[in-house]
């Protein structure tokens, strides 16, 4: 490692460690996932706000504030624990002592008077349990530690910021058995509509809880100042629920009474939409509604399921930690753990709303923050390593709607489609003016279909859509070696002809199709493409030391489309290819990482992670350590942006994120771990 890299890493570490009293484990990330379960239930808090957690708002993935507060009374003194941006008179702020994240939990510890409190934000990730994974709720558990015999009450509320529309809403309260719940809805919003921040305007924000550990429960709704003041003064709520008013909250109080023992209370926060996706004119709904069609039943089950969901999360957290550490050390496991919720929180598992037929299960992924497309094929490609390891059936669930659309007469192209619609949740078909990526998506669809089959041993996807796969393989054969001017999945680069990375995609895609079908002529064609690109230096410099962005040009390019060649052990490109890139990339490493190509100042963690799986030695260390330094440098607040500045260029600061937020493409970070094997998770 060059000395200035060491100095930069140390400087960034010192910038956020400084004299803070709060400890962070394993690192302080750019943003902590709080309630991240779908594109519309996506609450975060920046890492740099944790020291001021009592007065800091949670945020939707886009960065707009969400009201979500927790206040505790200890022997009559009220302490703000979380999200109380305007502290009520007579309250104090608790002291934040620690922050931890795993694959499924973000946990914060605080001291309030004589007692210690823990806030555990738990977003279940259940890769193979579709009911659990599709439930659009997340847990917040507030625990008071054992201590002196204090009188303890715990208050929490949310408001209409969760509906995406604060100018006109309504709320209601109800009970189901011991479960009390509030629903807040925007009024007059169209189904399948969003606001400018990407929040759903239809459906309901949900807040629910039930008595726990001997607590008594009281509720209220109304203006936030008066509801919170009543708690601060009385330690309870008055049970009044007037009509909605702007700035109003819905709140709960758990009165634990006099206790010296450890005690916990759990809240469920969520956003539910009966009609969740428009798939070619057919309304889809969450898979969980096959079991729990009514909201109250679904929320009640979610709270009932806490113990089992938490037991599963403990096993999953351990798997991710062990897998990352055994693959490439704790730096790598830190990256993986921070990526998991962001991936699964960008996806919804659905069934037809009318029939509730689980044999027609699908999944839909949102291209969060970049352009909002739905089931973008190259986004699925960027994400697929995590599915390959944890839930390969997701590849089928995501691809099947794409294949079904491409079978329609409405889709007339001879190459694979880019996405299913320009604006999530409207999977209504590729727009006439939408992006086209002929080589990219034709190669991706073949690679993804093979990844599913190789990981599961199931041929149902490839048998059903054999004609389409053959068509796209033939398109690669006819057009892939010398790609016409077109976009690649790095569409920020614009349309370019003869892109080396697209030629590599065609070569690997053809060989993958050969492996998929047993037709060796396609494998041979892929290797012939590779020979032209590598051996004949069509896509490299004259000495074969590096790949170029375009044939016969000078700028080098971070070629990541080699990854399936390595993952599937296809041997399309010779080992010398990977030896050369392993030597080259460290020589062009910027101050904070390797750029996407030679004339750019930014890099993408997606493709750095893909390339890390194709190289070894010092080159692999470069990629993993740089991604880790980026997430721990204390300069960023956006939910794990996969694009960041590796050099100070055009006024941008080294190590700062660039453009994207909360995208589910972080499944790419599992590329190296996927070399250990497929389908490693058992439900």
UniProtKB/TrEMBL annotation:
Glutaminase A N-terminal domain mapped to chain residues: 104-322
Domain of life, per lineage: Eukaryota
Domain Glutaminase A central: 329-672
Swiss-Prot/TrEMBL keywords: Signal
Signal peptide coordinates: 1-21
Pfam families: DUF5127, GtaA_6_Hairpin
Protein name, per record: Glutaminase
């Amino acid at each position: 490692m060059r000395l200035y890299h060491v100095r930069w890493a140390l400087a960034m570490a010192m910038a956020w460690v400084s004299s803070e009293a709060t400890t962070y484990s394993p690192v302080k990330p750019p943003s902590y996932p709080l309630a991240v379960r779908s594109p519309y239930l996506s609450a975060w808090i920046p890492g740099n706000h944790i020291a001021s957690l009592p007065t800091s708002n949670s945020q939707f993935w886009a960065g707009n504030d969400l009201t979500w507060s927790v206040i505790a009374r200890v022997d009559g003194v009220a302490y703000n624990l979380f999200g109380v941006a305007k502290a009520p008179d007579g309250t104090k702020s608790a002291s934040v002592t620690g922050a931890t994240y795993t694959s499924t939990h973000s946990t914060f510890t605080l001291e309030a008077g004589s007692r210690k409190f823990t806030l555990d934000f738990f977003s279940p990730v259940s890769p193979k349990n579709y009911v659990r994974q599709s439930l659009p709720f997340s847990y917040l558990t507030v625990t008071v530690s054992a201590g002196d015999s204090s009188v303890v009450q715990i208050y929490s509320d949310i408001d209409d910021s969760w509906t995406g529309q604060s100018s006109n809403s309504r709320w209601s309260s109800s009970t189901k058995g011991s479960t009390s719940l509030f629903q807040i809805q925007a009024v007059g919003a169209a189904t399948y509509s969003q606001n400018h921040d990407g929040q759903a305007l239809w459906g309901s924000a949900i807040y629910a809880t039930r008595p726990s550990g001997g607590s008594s429960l009281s509720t209220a709704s109304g203006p936030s100042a008066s509801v919170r003041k009543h708690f601060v003064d009385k330690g309870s709520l008055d049970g009044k629920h007037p009509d909605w008013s702007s700035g109003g909250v819905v709140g709960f109080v758990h009165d634990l009474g006099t206790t010296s023992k450890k005690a916990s209370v759990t809240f469920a926060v969520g956003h539910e939409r009966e009609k969740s996706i428009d798939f070619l004119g057919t309304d889809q709904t969450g898979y969980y509604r096959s079991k729990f069609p009514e909201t109250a039943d679904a929320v009640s089950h979610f709270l009932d399921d806490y113990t089992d969901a938490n037991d599963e999360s403990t096993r999953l957290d351990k798997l991710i930690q062990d897998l990352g550490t055994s693959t490439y050390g704790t730096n790598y496991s830190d990256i993986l753990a921070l990526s998991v919720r962001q991936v699964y929180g960008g996806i919804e598992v659905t069934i037809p709303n009318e029939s509730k037929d689980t044999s027609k299960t699908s999944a839909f992924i949102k291209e969060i923050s970049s352009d909002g497309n739905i089931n973008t094929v190259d986004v699925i490609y960027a994400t697929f390593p995590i599915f390959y390891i944890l839930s390969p059936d997701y590849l089928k669930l995501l691809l099947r709607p794409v294949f079904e659309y491409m079978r329609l007469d409405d889709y007339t192209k001879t190459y694979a489609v880019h996405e299913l619609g320009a604006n999530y949740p409207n999977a209504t078909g590729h727009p006439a003016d939408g992006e086209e990526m002929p080589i990219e998506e034709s190669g991706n669809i073949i690679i993804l279909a093979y990844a599913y089959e190789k990981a599961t041993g199931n041929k149902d996807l490839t048998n059903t859509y054999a004609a389409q796969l053959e068509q796209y393989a033939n398109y690669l054969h006819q057009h892939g070696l010398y790609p016409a001017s077109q976009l690649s999945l790095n569409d920020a680069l614009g349309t370019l002809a003869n892109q080396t990375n697209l030629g590599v995609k065609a070569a690997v895609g053809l060989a993958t199709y050969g492996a998929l079908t047993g037709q060796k002529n396609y494998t041979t064609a892929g290797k012939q493409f590779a020979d032209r690109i590598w051996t004949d230096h069509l896509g490299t410099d004259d000495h074969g030391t590096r790949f170029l962005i375009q044939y016969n040009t000078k700028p080098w390019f971070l070629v990541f489309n080699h990854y399936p060649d390595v993952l599937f052990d296809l041997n399309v490109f010779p080992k010398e290819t990977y030896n050369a890139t392993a030597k080259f990339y460290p020589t062009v490493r910027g101050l904070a990482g390797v750029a996407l190509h030679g004339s750019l100042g930014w890099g993408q963690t997606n493709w750095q992670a893909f390339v890390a799986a194709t190289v070894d030695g010092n080159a692999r260390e470069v990629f993993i350590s740089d991604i880790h330094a980026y997430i721990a440098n204390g300069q960023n607040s956006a939910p794990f942006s996969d694009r960041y500045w590796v050099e100070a260029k055009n006024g941008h600061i080294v190590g700062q994120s660039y453009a994207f937020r909360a995208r589910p493409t972080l499944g790419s970070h599992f590329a190296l771990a996927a070399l250990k094997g497929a389908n490693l998770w058992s439900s």
